[in-house]
Each structure stands twice: as C-alpha cells, then as structure tokens.
Amino acid sequence: MIDAGIFSTFIFMKKNFVLFGVLSAMASFYGCGGDSKSSAPEEPVVDPVADRCYEKYGFEENAEWSKMISGDSYLEKIVCDRVSERMSYMLSFYARCTKAKYDKSKKRFEINVLTERGDNQLWADVTGCKYKLGVDDNYQFNGFVANSPEFDFGECFCKTEGEKTYYRNINPELLKEESSSSAESSSSDSKISSSSKDEKGSSSSAAKSSSSVEKVAPTDSGFVNVGGQIWTTRNLDVAVDGSMCYDDKSANCDKYGRMYTWAQVMQVDESYNKKELGKIKLPYQGICPEGTHLPSYAEWDWLFSYLEKNPDYNKYFNQQSGGAYDYKGYYRSEGYEALFWSSTEYQVTALYEYEFAWLWSFRNDGSRGRDNGHKITGAYVRCLRDDSKKVELSSSSAQSSSSSEPVYSSMNEVYDPELTSIQLGDQKWMTRNLNVEVEGSRCYDDVPENCEKHGRLYTWAQAMKIDTKYDKEKLGDIDLPYQGICPEGTHLPSFEEWEKLKEYFNSHPEYTVYFTNQIGGYYHYEGRYKNGDYESLYWSSTEYDVSGTGYGYEFAYLWAYHVDDTDGYDNAHKYAAVNVRCIYND
Asked: Helix 74-90 and helix 172-185: axis angle, to 10°?
C-alpha cells in the first residue's frame, strides 16, 4: 500500500555539493582572514591582520592567548557561526547551530543544531588551527558533514610558534564590555577600509560616484574573438567610490583591475545588494564602456561550453588572477583565481531572497567554476561587445484564457527572465521551470509572483496536455519522446531520462545548481502548499501501476531536488501539482 505521506518518502541520493567548482575554493569563502598577506601602510604603521581582527571582532593583537582552548572562549562562537553559515547554503534556514561547547577531554567541540525535527548533535575535531566536522549516525547531516571542508580558525583566532599552537581565549561578554570604549577612541585613520585607497590610506582622487563613471572603451587590440563572442582581454579598472584594489594597494588595480560589488557593476543603488532588482533589458551595459555590456548568465554559460572544446582561450581570462574580496571582508586567492560578475541574479532560498548573483571563476590551473555569490563580494568585470554572437534562448510566453479547455501558448517568444539551456552529457535541458498558463494550474500559495520566481505548478494531466480524467485513469502506452506541455523541439522527460540525468550528476555534482535554482515547493494532493523553501518536484511522462492496491493508475513518477543537495524520486498522485522541466528532443 502506498503511504499517504508519499511526498516525504523520497529515496535520497547524496552527491557532492560544489559551491564554486572545488571545495578548496569554497573554504576560502568562510575563512576568517590570514590568507591575505597584505603590506602595512607607510604611515601609520599598522599590522593588517591585527587591524582586521579589531575591526571585525573588537580585540587587539595583544589580546589574551592560551595554549589550550577553554570554555567560554571566543572560538566557540566562531565555530557555531561557521556551521550556521555553511548550513544556510547546504541545508535550509530552519537548521541553525545554537551551541558549540569545547570538550577538553575529547579535544573537540560538541555542537547542537536546531531543525524542525528538534535538536541534533554534531562535533568538530580540532587539530592545531584546523577543525573538521563529524556526526554520529545522523542521516540528516551525513551528506552535509561529508562535503564540508576542513575549516581554519584563521590568524584572528589561532597561531603557531614553532611546535606550539595558541588560541584566542576571550569571553565574548567580557570582550564586548572591554572593547566598547576602546573602539570609540580608536583613530579611524588607522583602519583598513573596504573603499579604494592608495598605500598611504588616502582616498583615491580618481574615485567617482557610480552615476558619473568615466568609462573608456577598449581599443580594438583590447578584444579577443572567442567563437563569435568578442570579449575584453583585461579586467575593468574604472574608479568607482567604494570599489577595491587587492590588499588596498592601488598598484594592484593596475595589475589585476578593480573589484566591485554587484550593485556597483550594475550601476544601481547599493540597496540592491540585499534585494531583488528584477527584470532587466538585455544586453545590460552596467559599468561597461559604451558599445559593450555586462555578460549575462547565458553568455557566460555559452563561453564555458565553448572553452570545453577550445581550452587554449582560457589564457585570455586567467592572466589576471587577482583573487576576490570576500563577503566577510577579507582579500583572498591572489595568484590562484579571479572571480567575474554576471548581470544575472540568483534566489538561493526564501530566506536570503535576492542577496546573490551569479559569479564565474577562472583559475591558474585551467579549471573554471560558477556559483551564486553574495552581491557584496568584491569581484572583477569582463565586458562583452554588443555585436557579439547572440546566445540562443529557448523560451515560452504565458497567455491566459477564459475557456474551460486548456489553452497553451504558441511558445515562440522570449521569456523574460531568460530561459536558457544547458548540455549535461548527451542530454540538453532547460534551466528554468516552465511558466505557461493553463486553466487550473497554480502559483505557490496562490501568489502570482511565485509563478515568476519558481515556475507554475501542474497536475500530471495538465503537464501531459490531456483530459484531466487521466489524473484518475490509466493513459496507457505513449510514443516517446512525449511533448506534452513543453515547447516545440522539447518534451516532458520520461523516467529513464531523469534516471540518466541522476547518473550524470553522480560524477558532475556541480551541475545540480541548474535544478535547485528555483526551489518553490508543490501543491499536495490533499489540498495544501508544502515545502516552498525546501524542494521542487518535477513530473515525468511515465505512469506508475499500483492497480493491485486499489488505486489503479492514480500515480505517476516524479523527481525531487532539494536545497540540501539531495535528489530523489517516487510515485505520486497525479492530481498533485508540481513543476515541469523540459528536455530537448536531440
């Protein structure tokens, strides 16, 4: 007998979660500092690490150190914060670290995590200045722990002298009281600012507001033709108030170009680093010179596909490996990689809304990566000439009807935001959930904006484009591929095609982002919306025969993708409403 709670019984397949192509790059996003060896200004002489520690945490370099981690140390708060931050990416907003207590006898932190299922325990083994998460037989966190990097306390909290390790040993409450007065009396001139400065700490005279940026177009020699796309060959170096040079040294802007937040490159108010900008007209110029524009996700994606077969062109994008300015306020990865902005926003979960946009990475070893990064990250800009090869977009346009019969769009217009495609092995998939209005289809929580964000929810009969009686009856044999509601040239995936995609993800886990990019829940067959911040479910064209149970053909196969990077499949009531993702016929 099929369990009534059928949507909660997915068979989970854990996969590696890659937040920027490789876990080593991921770890640098969470570091406390110390990966950047910046030079001190000439006047006044300041230790950059000590200065950053003071600005971020309120203690000086001569604060108390200990050879042993003690209870109530500042490290306990840092470990808990790090676990919470990582969970916000890999799990969901309702999983939070509430306590990390150091156990001297076991030499590890005992960590408590609160989820909707109650309290859960993890631990972190400590070796020198590093610690690694562990868990005892907790299926909810096994994948999370397995894919977590080895964290580093950073120079703010841990240091080694010879064979000895020293830790910060500060009570956070005492720290708050002791540092309040000293923080007020500290000279602002001795602090390293995130704004653009020269070696003496003075604001660059070339800095201008984003509304009056002098944008000098590159000469013809400043472009390279890559498969028809015409890219600038150097990172942009246009002075904008608040933009950054690596290590706050103006010479590094000459060497690597300048780093910007997303709002700065889009030339919009900084408030959009924390909220949705929404639909934009492409191509979008942003900070780029006249005749060029900021590349969209689709244009970067096309370039990455081209470079797979033409790797010699990597040299035009990794010759200025100027690292990045971490969203937590630290320079990192100089000499290893450079991060580049796109004009495309990304909604990770309902918690963070639109605090993220797509970043692209080129590394010195020839590897590349993509990820959704905090908009307040400092990253570089490459511009694309307006007369470049146009990236083809597969799309649909929704139309409504008062007719009682289902009405489907002609599907020959460009959907905005863009509906792109991605080649995954020998399959080509759409990268957006379908949003074609059909009589009886739904938006999550009956809010129209959710159809724009997450796509529309359909019953199986609506997705198959057949009479709704087949939500309760057997349809029988169908010819494959079966188009259903999908646009011309694409079709509704069969069970076997979803299975093949799962096998591809086993060895290419970084591409799961294309199926977790619109997490929006579903409409349960009992008549309520569920899991809007946790998963998206997708129909297949394959029925499931449970006639021996008395249910007949009320079920079809569907697949699920979750924010914790698990996926799964099950047979579900056909009159539930879930998303549709189409696959190309070729």
From this structure: 90
